[in-house]
Amino acid sequence: MQVMHNVDLTPLNTFGLKARARDFAVLEHENDLHEIVKLPAFKRESVLWLGGGSNILLMGDYQGLAVHIQNRGIRELFRSDGLVYLEAQAGEVWHEFVLHTLEAGLSGLENLSLIPGSVGASPVQNIGAYGVEVKDAIHSVRCFDLDTCTFVTLDNAACRFSYRESLFKQAGRGRYVITAVVFALNETFRPNVRYGDLAAVVEQACAGRKITAKDVSDAVCQIRSGKLPDPKTLGNVGSFFKNPVVAAPTAQKLLAQYPDMPHYPQPDGSVKLAAGWLIECCNLKGFQIGGAAVHNQQALVLVNKQQAQAHDVYALAQHIVRTVQQTFGVALHTEPNWIGADTAPDTAAAV
Ligand code: EPU
C-alpha cells in the first residue's frame, strides 16, 4: 500500500474547494483495508474516506490520512421472484452504474439518474430524487467493521434508513467502511412518475408509445440538467440543505400567511417543506458571499462561482440559515459533511 503526501484534493471534491491531504492512499480492492488499518498514518477517528467527493465540504488542508475508495466491479448474484440481485463495488460511479442496470434491462434506479457520487456513498445519505430513495432498492450493504477488522453484511433494516439519513451518518459513523452494495432490481418495469412534472415530461417524450425505464431516466436527466448545475462546470454538492420537516400546526400557520407554499404531509402527521422555496422567498437566489453563491435556477443548491474559499461557503450557509429562521421560524439543516469544521453552520447560526 503506497502512501502519498501533500496530495491535492481540489479535483476530488465536486465543490472545488482548495485543500491538500497530508497523507493519501487509494483503495483498489476491499482487501486493501487489512493493510490500510496497519499504516502508521491510520488513525481511526481521523480518516477521510473519500468517494466521489460530491457530499463533502473541505474546510482546509486535511491533516490526516485520506483514502480514495476506488474498488470497481459489478456482478449478478442471483435472481428470485422477479428480482435480480446485483452487487456493485463502492468505487463505481453512481450514474454509470444506473446506466449499466438500464442496459441490462433492469429497473428500480431510473429515477435516481444523474446523481453525482459513488455507489458506496449512496446508502450513507440515502440518496433520493423524484419520489424514490435508494433504500427502496438496497438489499444489503457490505462493510468493513473497524471495531472488529472483519467484513460484515448489514441488511436493509440494519442500515436504519430514513430521509437523507442512515446508520452510517449516526451510530455507525466512523465504524463502518462501505465496500459494496447489493441492490434488488426489477425484471419487470413499473413506472413511478408521480413526482412533480416527471409524468408530463415522460409522456411528451414517448408520444403514446409504451414507457420504458430508460425513458424515465432520460426525463430525469433532462429535468435535472435544467435546474441543477453540472459539477464539472460549476462546483456544487447538490442540495445543500435538507427539506425541513415541521409539526402540522407550524405548517398551518405558515400556509395561512403563504398559501402558495409547497408542502408535503408525511405519514406521521408532520409536514415537509421545500427549503429551496423558503430560500427563494427570502430573495436569496443569486446571493453571493466571496466566491460562493446561491444558484440562480435552484435555491437549494450553493455553487462555487469564483474560486470560493471555505469560509465563503460557511458564511453563506450561516446567512441562509439565519435569514430563513428569522423570516419563517423554520430551522434549516445542511446536508453535506463539513470536514474540518468544529461545528456545522446550521448549529453555529442557531446560537
Ligand atoms: N422551489 C422553489 N424555488 C427553488 C427551488 C424549489 O420555489 O429555488 C420549489 C419548487 O417549485 C417545488 C418545490 O420547491 O415546488 C420542490 O422543488 P424540487 O422539486 O426542485 O425539489 P427539492 O425539494 O428542491 C429535492 C431533493 C433533490 C431532488 C429533488 C427531486 C432534497 C434535499 N433535495 O429537492 O435532491 O433531486 O427533490 O426529487 O430532498 C440532492 O439531494 O442533492 C438533490 C438534488
UniProtKB/TrEMBL annotation:
Family: Belongs to the MurB family.
Record Gene3D superfamilies: 3.30.465.10, UDP-N-acetylenolpyruvoylglucosamine reductase, C-terminal domain, Uridine Diphospho-n-acetylenolpyruvylglucosamine Reductase, domain 2
Top-level EC class as recorded in UniProt: oxidoreductase
Biological role: Cell wall formation.
GO term, biological process aspect, one: regulation of cell shape
Entry protein name: UDP-N-acetylenolpyruvoylglucosamine reductase
Keyword annotations of the record: Cell cycle, Cell division, Cell shape, Cell wall biogenesis/degradation, Cytoplasm, FAD, Flavoprotein, NADP, Oxidoreductase, Peptidoglycan synthesis
Pathway: Cell wall biogenesis; peptidoglycan biosynthesis
Record-level GO cellular component terms: cytosol
Active site: R164, S239, E335
Natural source organism: Neisseria musculi
Domain FAD-binding PCMH-type intervals: 17-188
Localization terms from the record: Cytoplasm
Enzyme Commission code: 1.3.1.98
NCBIfam families assigned to the protein according to its UniProt record, in alphabetical order: murB, PRK00046.1, PRK13903.1
